[in-house]
Write a structure and sequence with these properties.
alpha/beta; 8 helices; PET_hydrolase/cutinase-like
Length: 286
């Protein structure tokens, strides 16, 4: 079910959101509070509380917490798209990082993901796994909370993956241009590199400006080049993790980084050489 705005699962926050955002249409539906994934404070770039496990398949590679559902929680899904010519192994440290924060990452084993066909098929894979009593994912994944993320061509693929109504948010890291954000209706985080000569910041900013019908934010990472995302995730690791934790895990600490009058990233000129958020993003409480 599409959730335009992830609610913090407390009654007073839900009421406040309804009063504040009711006119915009970006109010999520009330839902039972899932068992909480442990807080990490504001340590988004540090390894999370879960030990990652990796399973390499023919079409997808899965990165996930070794002890799935150990607290009774259900784990959200993150679809991952690689840059041109790359496979998930090129991003292994970053994808293990996401898994350490409680996400089940379904990475396409493809060097060409712009049209997101393999990425979107990852949802079908997880639906089958979640329904299989013999699978480690049985009863442990949250099919109502799915994000799409990717780098370069994969960043463009992440936007295209969100055409699927089962996807709830997008992280587009230095994305290529072959996408149409007008076809999606979920929040998007655009990450650009200040010194990226492959996908220049001006292109990423233009894509952000086109996303005026959904909550969208643009972060330009100071000193970052295009290839710094590979392996560790570079400076993209922290903000991308925070965005996913907000929209897929309702993390209240992550909300304060992106939203509210004095959001943490708004004035962080040490980490970012540029920060922008559109009007819909401005209306979300921090």
């Amino acid at each position: 079910m599409r959730k335009p705005l992830a609610l913090l699962r407390r009654t007073f926050v839900a009421v406040a959101l309804c009063m504040t955002l009711g006119a915009t249409g970006w109010v999520g539906t009330a839902a039972a509070e899932p068992a909480a994934v442990p807080s990490v404070g504001h340590r988004w770039a540090e390894i999370g509380p879960y030990t990652p496990e990796v399973s390499i398949g023919l079409v997808h590679t899965l990165y996930y917490p070794r002890d799935l559902g150990q607290r009774g929680e259900k784990h959200p899904i993150v679809l991952w798209g690689n840059g041109t010519g790359a496979l998930p192994g090129a991003y292994a440290s970053l994808l293990r990082h996401y898994a350490s924060h409680g996400f089940v990452v379904v990475a396409a084993n493809s060097p060409n993901v712009n049209f997101a066909i393999t990425m979107r098929s990852g949802i079908d894979l997880m639906e089958r796994e979640a329904a299989d009593p013999n699978s480690v994912f049985f009863g442990n994944v949250d099919l109502d909370r799915i994000g799409a993320a990717g780098h370069s061509q994969g960043g463009s693929g992440a936007i295209n993956a969100a055409i699927d109504k089962r996807v709830d948010t997008v992280v587009a890291i230095q994305p290529g241009p072959l996408n149409d954000v007008d076809l999606i209706d979920v929040p998007v985080l655009y990450l650009a590199g200040q010194f990226d000569l492959i996908v220049r910041p001006a292109l990423v900013r233009a894509l952000y400006e086109d996303a005026d019908h959904v909550p969208a934010e643009y972060l330009e990472l100071r000193g970052a080049i295009h290839f710094g995302t590979a392996i560790t995730g570079g400076a993209n690791r922290g903000p991308s993790t925070a965005w996913l934790r907000y929209w897929l895990l309702d993390d209240p600490n992550a909300a304060t980084e992106f939203f509210g009058e004095n959001c943490g990233y708004c004035s962080d000129t040490r980490q970012f050489s540029g920060f922008e958020r559109n009007e819909l993003a401005r209306q979300i409480p921090g």
